[in-house]
Amino acid sequence: MAEEKAIFAGGCFWCMVKPFDQMPGIKKVVSGYTGGDVENPTYEQVGSGTTGHTEAVEITFDPDIISYQQLVEIYWQQTDPTDAFGQFADRGDSYRPVIFYSSDEQKLTAEASKERLQASGRFKEPIVTTIEPAQPFYPAEDYHQDFYRKNPAHYNAYSEGSGRKGFIRQHWQA
């Protein structure tokens, strides 16, 4: 059985799990931290902005069922790709949008997808999501895992109140 990993940062990792978790071919979605210079950082350390980490999700998937290209397309539809300084109500480097690639193929796929999105005219502003090499990924604390399942009322209130759901409705479901 084939297995690959994809790492995406798109603001609060709570909101990045559900869209992938429910797709065929997804084996696991883990909330965590990547891109920083401290081993095994805590939520508090990452939130302080001193570790260089970004909140992200690591997706383990079966490429025979769902392609990396499909994952990238799902990713775009969860984010504001024109906002380099955070996502929705979450501001700062730990919430910046990033596609982390782990192979040349993933890099080329992500770059081509970003170019298509920019050329589509869907957004008037430039697409500023960065595409960077994968770095060590550290799972977040247990209470952050599968948050949408463990705390559905909080998750729904947060994803609506942060502006994420409204943005998605306006830009992706119109």
Count of DSSP helices? 7
* Amino-to-carboxy terminus distance: 37 Å
- Radius of gyration, in angstroms, nearest whole number: 15 Å
Give the overall form: globular
Largest beta sheet: strand ordering: 7-6-1-3-2-8
Catalytic activity: [thioredoxin]-disulfide + L-methionine + H2O = L-methionine (S)-S-oxide + [thioredoxin]-dithiol; L-methionyl-[protein] + [thioredoxin]-disulfide + H2O = L-methionyl-(S)-S-oxide-[protein] + [thioredoxin]-dithiol
Enzyme class: oxidoreductase
Function: Has an important function as a repair enzyme for proteins that have been inactivated by oxidation. Catalyzes the reversible oxidation-reduction of methionine sulfoxide in proteins to methionine.
Protein name: Peptide methionine sulfoxide reductase MsrA
Structure in words:
The chain has 174 residues and is an alpha+beta fold. The protein has a single domain, classed as Peptide Methionine Sulfoxide Reductase, Chain A (2-Layer Sandwich). It contains 7 helices and 8 strands; from the N terminus they run E-H-E-H-E-H-E-E-E-H-E-E-H-H-H. The longest helix has 17 residues. The protein is globular and about 40 Å long. The N and C termini lie far apart (37 Å). The relative contact order is 0.22.
Key terms:
174 residues, single chain, six-stranded mixed beta sheet, peptide-methionine (S)-S-oxide reductase activity, 22% strand, two-stranded antiparallel sheet, alpha+beta, Peptide Methionine Sulfoxide Reductase, Chain A
